[in-house]
Amino acid sequence: QLHLRESGGGLVHPGGSLRLSCAATEGIFNVIARRWYRQAPGKQRTLIATLTSDGLTDYAPSVRGRFAISRDAAKNMMYLEMNDLKPEDTALYYCNYHRRGPDLWGQGTQVTVSS
User: Fold this and answer.
1) What is d(CA 110, CA 64) in angstroms, rounded to the nearest whole number?
2) Which segments of the chain are extended strands (E)?
3) SS3 state of residue 51
4) Measuring CA to CA, which residue among 43, 78, 46 is closest to residue 60?
5) I need a surface site. Which of 25, 46, 61, 98 has the fewest CB within 10 A?
6) Alpha-carbon torsion 108, 79, 32, 43, what sign?
7) Is the pLDDT of residue 29 over 90?
8) CA end-to-end span of the chain, whole Å?
9) Is 75 helix (H, G, I), strand (E, B) or coil?
10) CB 47 within 8 A of CB 35
11) Is 28 exposed, middle or buried, given 0-12, 13-18 or 19+ CB atoms closer than 10 A?
12) Can you say whether the dihedral through the CA atoms of 55, 20, 76, 1 is positive or negative?
């Protein structure tokens, strides 16, 4: 059965960096875009990074210039490089495959930015 699993979250000081990974248990077809979302306590889940099948990227203003989405299709992986982390980046981070068919979601990985 196809699953996504995020990893790489943790506790980091302000200004620090983390790299999130999203592993798929098998190849995923008909992908339109790979995405990262996050959900802070008491807030809605929001889209923060997109990588289309054509290689185009887009970022939420709050993370643009600090975060970078990438993929390794051969390994069924996607990544989110996060730099200059701020306390407001604290959230549960989810990877998502937007495709022709049902979207796929991981279970989330917690990122906490605190001194």
Assistant:
1) 20
2) 4-7, 10-12, 18-24, 31-39, 46-52, 57-59, 67-72, 77-82, 91-99, 104-105, 109-113
3) strand
4) 46
5) 61
6) positive
7) no
8) 40
9) helix
10) yes
11) middle
12) negative
> Measured between alpha carbons, how far is 77 from 55 in angstroms, rounded to an integer?
15
Is the torsion defined by CA of 105, 114, 18, 52 positive or negative? positive
CB 38 within 8 A of CB 93: yes
Structure tokens at 48: 């923060």
Q: How far is CA 1 from the centre of its chain?
A: 21
Give the length of the chain: 115
Number of CB atoms found within 10 A of residue 33's CB = 20
Residue 37: what pLDDT? 98
**Whether residue 67 has pLDDT greater than 90:** yes
Token duo for residue 22: 């999203």
Side chain identity at residue 111, one-letter code: V
